[in-house]
C-alpha cells in the first residue's frame, strides 16, 4: 500500500461558538501535523472566507502549554501545584467523588457543567446522557442566547428567518447588534457582495465604532441598551411617511392599528434623547429602509447582553413586519436558523431518560449557585461535585468574585476536562486533557446558516488526550450505567442521529460533506404564516407565554412592555457610577478561546479600557494611564485607550482576557451582574454601571 502523500487536504467544520460554523479545508502535513486552515470555497455560505484566528489553528493544536496528561491537585485550590496521575486512576477518583457526594446529599448535588467550547453535537451534548441517567442537576444554558431568542420568537414564533445567503441579493443590509467583522465574518462576505454587485447600502448599528461600523455606509452609534427606542422611532416614521405596507400588515400581523397608535409619541426627537443619536440620523435610516423594499435585517447576539435585550430584539425585528420586507428575496430578517434542523438527539443526550422533575440550575447564576443562594439552588441541596467540559466559568461568568468564592469552597469537588490550563482548570481537583476538534469525530449545525456539516477526525491527538465522549463513557462505566449510548462510538451516534432525523446516513454525509437544510422561500419568509398558532407576526407579546426554552419566568417580567417600546430596565448610570461599561468581543479571541495563542495575544496586546477623550480629560487621564474601574461588585485595573468612536459616558473593554492578564488577577467579569434577567434569564454582561478613577 502506498504511503499517503503530504501535504493533503482534509475537510471539517469550525467547532467554536460562532454562528458562521465555517466549512473548512485543512492542510494536513507529515508527522501528524496541520498547516494552514482555509474556508471551503465550494460551500456557498463560507465561500472560502474564515477568520484569521481559525486560519492559524496550528497555534492552538501545537501550543506548548497544551494539557497532555491527567493531573491531580496537590496544593491548595488555585495554587497551581499538580502531580501527574494515570487516566484510569483519575476517572476512578472522579466517579468516587460523585458517588460519595450523591450518598450524602442525593443525586442533585452533582452538577455536570458544559457549554459551547465546541458546538459539536456529540462531544458537546453527550454529557447530558450522564446527567439524565443519574438524575444529576440540570444545566440551564442561558449565558449566550436567551434574551435574543426570546425576543425573536416573541415576534415570529420560531427561530428561523430568511436564507442568510440572501444578504447578497439585498439592496440594504442592516447589521444590528453584532460586530460581524470580529465575530461572524461571513456576514460581511455576503453584505459586501451585495454592495459590489447591486449597489446595496450597508447599515451598522452598535455602541461603538468597531470594524463593522467602519465598513458601513450608515453607522449608527447609540448608547447601550437603547436599541428599542431607535426601532420604535423608525416605525413611527414609517407609519408617518407612508412607508408602512398596510396590506401586508393586515394579512400577516396581529395588531397593526394598536401598534401605530402606540407609536404616535415615539418620535425621532424622543428617541434621540434616549439613544444619543441625532434626529437626522434616525430620519435617514428610516427613509432608507422605508424606500428600499429588499432590506435584510441581520440581528445579532448583542441583544442578549442587555437586561432589556428581549424587548429590544422584538422591537428591531418588528421593523421588517411594518415595511413588509419579508415578501421579497433579499428582504426580511435573520438571527439564527436553529429551528430548521429537526435533529433527533435522543441517543446522544439520553432524552429517553430525562426526568422533568429534576431541578435546573441557571448557568448565568453560577455565582449564586456555588455560593449556596437558596433561590438559585431551587430549594435543593448545595452543589458539591462537578464535571466541567467546553467552558471556562471562572473567566466568563458574571459576578466573578462570587464565582471564585464558590470554586474555592473546600467541600466542592471539581473535575475539568480541558485543552489548556484555564482559570477554571486551575481551581480543579482533577484536570483531564482533552482533544481538539481535528482529533475526533463530530457533526455540526450552523445557526448562522443552513448547513449540517461533518467534522471527521483528521489527525491523532497527543497520546493521553481523550474525547469528551470517551470521558463521559468512562465515568458511566464506573457509575454502573448501561444505557446503550455510552457504548456507542462517536461515528455510531452521528449515523443514528442522521437516520432518525431523516437526513440520510453517515456514509452519505461523508460523500457530500454537508447537508443544505434551508426551508423553501415561502416558509423561510413566513409567507405561509408565522410560527404562532394564528399564523401572524405578533407585535403584542405576553412575555411569560413566549414559546422559548425556559423553567419559569424570572426577573422583573411583569414590567415588560406588551408592545414594542424602550424599556428602562438596564443598569443605568448614576452619580456614583457615571459610566456604562460593555465587555465587547475582541477580534482575535472567541470568548475565552484563543486568548492563549501567541499571535492573538500579541495583536490584542493587553486588557484596556476604551474611553472618550473628553471623558478622560475630565478625569485627568491620558493614553496608557492605569485606571481602576469599579462598582459595588468589585474593581479591576486596566490601561487607558483613548477612543472617540463611542458616546460620552460609555466605556468598552474588549475581551475576554484570562484573569491572570489583569494586574490584580481580577477579570473584567468582576464588574458584571448575575441578577435574573427577564423574562427567562441570561447574562447582561454589556450592561454594567461603573466608576472610573486613576489607579
TrEMBL record:
Keywords in alphabetical order: Iron, Iron-sulfur, Metal-binding
CDD domains: MopB_3 (cd02766), MopB_CT_3 (cd02786)
Domain 4Fe-4S Mo/W bis-MGD-type: 7-65
SMART domains attached to this UniProt entry: Molybdop_Fe4S4 (SM00926)
PROSITE patterns: 4FE4S_MOW_BIS_MGD
Family under the similarity heading: Belongs to the prokaryotic molybdopterin-containing oxidoreductase family.
PANTHER family: OXIDOREDUCTASE YYAE-RELATED, TRIMETHYLAMINE-N-OXIDE REDUCTASE
Name of this protein: Molybdopterin-dependent oxidoreductase
Organism: Kaistia terrae
